[in-house]
Amino acid sequence: LSFDLVYDFAIHTPLDEIRFILDTARLNKKAAEESVKGQFGHAVSKTISGPIGKKYLGDSSYTHMLRLTAAACDARMDGAMIPVMSNSGSGNQGIAATLPVVVFAEENHKTEEELIRALVLSHLTAIYIKQNLGRLSALCGCVVAATGSSCGITYLMGGEYKQVAYAVQNMIANLTGMICDGAKPSCALKLTSGVSTAVFSAILAMEGKCVTSVEGIIEDNVDFSIRNLTKIGSEGMNETDKLVLDIMTHKHCD
């Protein structure tokens, strides 16, 4: 599997063969809408749309993407009996790979076909990265899922392969190294950071801006950059994983 194959599949596969992806849009959006009715976790979603959130963040497609994604995670991480569609075995990754793309498509009046292809691109990108990372890692899965959603958003902005690959490079340059310290209510904060970076990375990509191979872990070939990301997560962060677990099991709680 390679990134150009992922892109080609998402863009050119007959629509009826991939229409099933709309199920994830329906299920995860329903989860977010149910969450808004209650009070869950750290209420990240309601904070974004509350008076202070609106004052400083505004009320736009961008904040709606953050709000809906955080909503589903707020509820799920607080134990609400609300089903979501997962990606690579993770509900939060399914949420992050789905809802930003869905909100962007709806609020920018994209066609059903564009939404389907954007969702397939998002989810399959996450699967491609995840298969090299492994099921469990000290690297937060929202980095992977948000990279997928950045691809879907870039495509919906009118981007082609070049711009979508740029978005991946920008994401890897920015979020690599975010730790996973378990499933918990504060995961909604990490998903929000991932979605925020996904949007910014897409905008940079559409402006023709991409982190270059002379910087950090980025290489000219997007597949090599993905390998560098997954190598850091699967090999380089093994000690991080042990240390995080040690800290979590020896906290000095009152």
Protein model, in words:
This protein is mainly alpha-helical and 254 residues long. Helix content is 69%, strand content 0%. The protein is built from 13 helices and no strands. The chain has helices spanning 3-12, 15-18, 22-36, 44-49, 51-57, 61-77, 91-107, 112-133, 141-156, 161-175, 187-206, 222-236, 238-249. α7 packs parallel to α9 (141-156), α8 (112-133) runs antiparallel to α9 and α8 crosses α12. The termini are far apart. The mean pLDDT is 95.
Q: Residue-averaged pLDDT, rounded? A: 95
Order of helices and strands: HHHHHHHHHHHHH
In the predicted model, the low-confidence regions spanning at least 5 consecutive residues are: none
Number of DSSP helices? 13
The global form is globular
Distance between the termini: 50 Å
- Class by helix and strand content? mainly alpha
Work out the number of β strands.
0
Whole-number radius of gyration?
17 Å
- Strand content of the residues, in percent? under 5%
Considering DSSP H and I runs of 4 or more, what fraction of the residues is helical?
55-70%
Please outline the major beta sheet: none
